[in-house]
Design a protein that fits this description.
By secondary structure, this protein is α/β, with parallel strands linked by helices. It is built from nine helices and seven strands, in the order E-H-E-H-E-H-E-H-E-H-E-H-H-E-H-H. The longest helix is centred in the middle third of the chain and has 18 residues.
């Protein structure tokens, strides 16, 4: 049976993680022929994120200290490789993604057309708040400038990787800059990339999470340092 590993990086998501996991589990039940594992990387949360996730049926991998998004993705990818997963899917834990899009995101991999699939929020820009649109476009321009690979949505947390991609990609950054770094790894390893449109669900809670304009200078600096390592 094929193995699907769904990883949700989480930091202080007690308020929503249970509901998000319930929705993801429901969607995974609609994927016959797959042995699916639902994994939460509790990135040093100060609340009950880990406990709520376990109660909801997820495997919880905990960082004692908060390492950042890059560290959480690295841990999740390492686990997926350890269990020899066929496909790894990453989803944000703040509830902004629709689990029904899992089928859409893994589709190009199952069809043999892609090694990595990005769920892009930018196919319907009207549904994206202006501040998020600016961050996303800015990240995509920076990603192209540094790594010479174009994407409509470099900051999307909804991704799928096949086994080849998991083995090839080496995550070195720890924070939010990992979103752009992944495209550098796709380019470096000659991996086939496809983008598919996804729904996005913005709430007051989810808009408080993730990337913001104040983080931009630090992200740029860390990506430049990453290039010279």
């Amino acid at each position: 049976m094929k193995k699907l590993c769904v990883v949700l990086p989480a930091f202080n998501e007690e308020a929503v993680i249970g509901q998000v996991l319930t929705s993801v589990k429901k969607e995974l039940e609609n994927l016959p022929g797959w042995q699916a594992q639902l994994v939460v990387v509790d990135d040093g949360s100060h609340d009950r994120t880990g406990q709520v996730a376990r109660k909801a049926g997820a495997i919880v991998l905990r960082h004692v200290l908060n390492r950042g998004l890059g560290g959480a993705i690295s841990t999740g990818m390492g686990y997926a490789k350890k269990i020899n997963a066929n496909i790894l899917v990453t989803i944000d834990s703040d509830g902004q993604h629709d689990p029904e899009d899992i089928k859409k995101v893994i589709g190009p991999i199952l069809e043999g057309r892609a090694d990595v699939v990005i769920g892009s929020r930018l196919f319907d820009r009207k549904k994206m708040p202006l501040d998020r649109l600016i961050i996303s476009w800015g990240g995509s321009i920076l990603t192209f400038f540094l790594f010479r690979i174009w994407t409509t949505d470099s900051q999307s947390g909804f991704r799928a990787f096949n086994r080849k991609a998991m083995q090839a990609i080496q995550v070195k950054t720890q924070g939010m800059e990992v979103s752009s770094e992944l495209f550098g790894e796709i380019k470096r390893n000659g991996l086939r990339l496809i983008e598919v449109p996804i729904k996005v669900i913005y709430t007051e809670y989810s808009r408080q999470k993730g990337q913001n304009n104040l983080n931009a200078p630090r992200v740029v600096l860390k990506l430049i340092l990453r290039l010279f390592r």
